[in-house]
Design brief:
By secondary structure, the protein is an alpha/beta fold. The protein is built from 14 helices and ten strands. The protein has three domains: 2-132, no CATH class; 137-227, Response regulator (Rossmann fold, 3-Layer(aba) Sandwich); 255-446, no CATH class. The strands form four sheets. It has a four-stranded parallel β-sheet, sandwiched between helices. Its main location: membrane. This is Undecaprenyl-phosphate glucose phosphotransferase. GO terms for molecular function: undecaprenyl-phosphate glucose phosphotransferase activity.
Length: 452
């Protein structure tokens, strides 16, 4: 029995979470709506609705490696769905006369308590793993290279995630005997999870490991580093009974996500235009024209969604020159005016792009669009550069707040920018957009080193 003692962890955590959340949902429902509803039927409807919605939104899909930001996203998703459900219930039973104000108070209290419980449980489990060594999983890695060394370091440096790493096996000679000795060690040490480096193993060895894991109730996971696809999110689907693996899953291809992002873009850009640009534009127009003759706005062709060209707008920060469409600003660039230095340093020059967002050519957050001449150059020279055009370009982006904005001095700069852009495309969420916007605002206040 000891071989399978660790088999499935935290088996009671999800039922307990359901029980506590449903207790909160129903207790508060009776408190807020007791005079309006028949308790038993209301509790049954609300409980059933909560379970269905949590299944659809994967609200209880929180694991030891789940990040806090992902938990917050799950809470907001469940909040939105549950609010709609309560309003639908109120509308269907119109004779109950439940006011919207009461519904919002009820939903707010529910999610305050549910979020408090969810994060309390999350941090208590981390504390439990670190302090008492409980709720842990014993791991072994087969194959040794940079990726597996990084994983081994992660296990050792993050005890709160509850992993105890035992051994990393080096299979340079790829002999069957070595693999059999790995299996013997895994059984003797009661290893729970096996992590395999695909690049260090043959297909035959991979099949042997899978068979061993299946026959001994071990969890096996893979580091697909041999194909250089470790930064991609793969999507597994069935066409009837035929399995299909999609190399890149793009959340913004989903119509609901597109609607959410577009709605956010319209509201945010309209707010900036009305409350900021309406008074800032005349002021900057005066300052720009005092220092140099020329237009207030600078228009430049750039490549956007699906590689389509559009006119990107900025406040003019340079003296008018013929090379503005060909050469990016560099450190100490003599074309930049004094007021231009300030508005570039604080990113104020980018604000007119909120009109581009309102018109639908850009988004508030996304991969930064490049000049057409630069796009054509990098498309030929930089691997996966064109992936950036799967979504609308943004005023700011993950690459920019991660230190890769401004002048591209070496190929390393643009390669890193592309990596961050692809990560953003494959991991988009409205919460990530908000995080990037906040970080952009903080960077603008501090002033950025590469903003010149």
């Amino acid at each position: 029995m000891s071989t399978f003692k660790q088999g499935r962890y935290s088996v009671y955590l999800r039922p307990i979470s359901y029980l506590i959340d449903l207790s909160i949902v129903n207790a508060l429902a009776l408190f807020f709506f007791f005079k309006n509803v028949e308790p038993l039927s209301f509790v049954l409807i609300v409980s059933t609705g909560w379970i269905i919605l949590s299944t659809l939104s994967k609200f209880y899909g929180v694991y030891r490696y789940t990040r806090e930001v992902s938990i917050v996203a799950l809470i907001f998703r469940q909040l939105a769905l549950f609010t709609l459900m309560i309003f639908a219930f109120s509308g269907f039973y119109n004779d109950l006369n439940i006011s919207p104000k009461i519904i919002f108070k009820y939903v707010g209290c529910v999610f305050l308590l549910v979020a408090l419980f969810k994060f309390t449980l999350y941090y208590l489990l981390q504390k439990y793993r670190v302090s008492f060594g409980g709720n842990y999983r014993i791991t072994a890695i087969i194959g040794k290279n940079k990726q597996t060394s990084a994983l081994e370091k992660f296990f050792k440096n993050n005890p709160e995630y509850g992993y105890t790493h035992k051994k990393t096996f080096n299979l340079k000679d790829k002999s069957i005997e070595d693999l059999q000795s790995c299996f013997k060690y895994i059984k003797e040490q009661h290893i729970d999870e096996i992590y395999c480096s695909v690049s260090e193993l043959t297909n035959k060895q991979l099949n042997q490991i899978i068979d061993f894991a299946d026959n001994n109730l071990k969890i096996v996971k893979f580091l697909p580093d041999n194909k250089d696809i470790y930064s991609k999110k793969l999507k597994y689907e069935y066409y009837n009974y035929t399995p299909i693996l999609t190399l890149r899953d793009i959340p913004l291809e989903d119509s609901v996500n597109q609607f959410i992002k577009r709605l956010f873009d319209i509201i945010f850009s309209f707010t900036v235009i009305v409350f900021l640009l309406s008074w800032l534009t005349p002021l900057l127009a005066i300052l720009i024209r005092i220092e140099s003759r020329g237009p207030i706005f600078f228009k430049q062709s750039r490549n956007g969604f699906n590689y389509k060209e559009f006119d990107c707008y900025k406040f003019r920060s340079m003296t008018p020159n013929k090379n503005a469409h060909l050469h990016q600003a560099t450190r100490g660039d003599q074309r930049v005016t004094r007021i231009g230095k300030f508005i570039r340093k604080t990113s104020i020059d980018e604000l007119p792009q909120f009109f581009n967002v309102l018109f639908g050519d850009m988004s508030v957050v996304g991969p930064r669009p490049h000049m057409v001449s630069h796009t054509n150059m990098y498309a030929k020279r930089i691997d996966k550069f064109m992936v950036r055009h799967f979504v609308k370009p943004g005023i700011t982006g993950l690459a920019q707040v991660s230190g890769f904005r401004g002048e591209i001095e070496t190929d390393k700069d643009i390669i890193n920018r592309v990596k961050y852009d692809i990560f953003y495309i494959e991991n988009w969420s409205i919460l990530l957009d908000i995080k990037i916007i906040v970080q952009t605002a903080l960077n603008a206040i501090k002033g950025e080193e590469k903003a010149y």
